[in-house]
Amino acid sequence: MNIDRAVMAFAGVMILASAALSYFFSPLWLLLTAFVGVNLLQAAFTGFCPAAMLFGKLGFKSGCAFK
């Protein structure tokens, strides 16, 4: 798995977890979904993604988007 796929998988897990937490506990958990979405949007324009940096340090190989 490369960094690009790891970032997408991590974002998907965070969004699903946020949706489940908002359904079972509080709608305020949707703020986590908004945070993930904003982070993905800014990463698309700037190329800066903290999750990609973390996955790179964990030894994932580079993909097309994050090098």
Automatic annotation (TrEMBL):
- At the top level, the lineage of the source is Bacteria
Please give the InterPro entries that the UniProt record associates with this protein. Answer: YgaP-like_TM (IPR021309)
Every copy of the Inner membrane protein YgaP-like transmembrane domain together lies at 2-57
Which named protein is this?
Inner membrane protein YgaP-like transmembrane domain-containing protein
* Gene3D superfamilies per record: 6.10.140.1340
Alphabetically sorted, this entry's keywords are:
Membrane, Transmembrane, Transmembrane helix
Annotated membrane-spanning segments are: 7-25, 31-55
